[in-house]
Amino acid sequence: MDHDDSLQRLDLKGLKCPLPALHTRRALARALPGAVILVECTDPMAAIDIPHLAHQDGHVLEAQAQEAGVLSFRIRRGSGGAGG
């Protein structure tokens, strides 16, 4: 595990659409450009919604995985002014 101080963890397990995407968007809007957010959720729709919002808002989806029913997304905050 890397020890990145700019890594923020967002535990959204158990939340249903559209809440995971909304919480992710809010966290990205508050983060500094270049910060990394690790989002973990269980809603299957997040596999579509979260990559879409990251692209739409100008962020970088660095990694996406699924293990034991948990979806995880590693998103780097873009430098643009998009967001909340």
From TrEMBL:
<protein>
    <submittedName>
        <fullName>tRNA 2-thiouridine synthesizing protein A</fullName>
    </submittedName>
</protein>
<dbReference type="InterPro" id="IPR001455">
    <property type="entry name" value="TusA-like"/>
</dbReference>
<comment type="similarity">
    <text>Belongs to the sulfur carrier protein TusA family.</text>
</comment>
<dbReference type="Pfam" id="PF01206">
    <property type="entry name" value="TusA"/>
</dbReference>
<feature type="domain" description="UPF0033">
    <location>
        <begin position="10"/>
        <end position="34"/>
    </location>
</feature>
<dbReference type="InterPro" id="IPR036868">
    <property type="entry name" value="TusA-like_sf"/>
</dbReference>
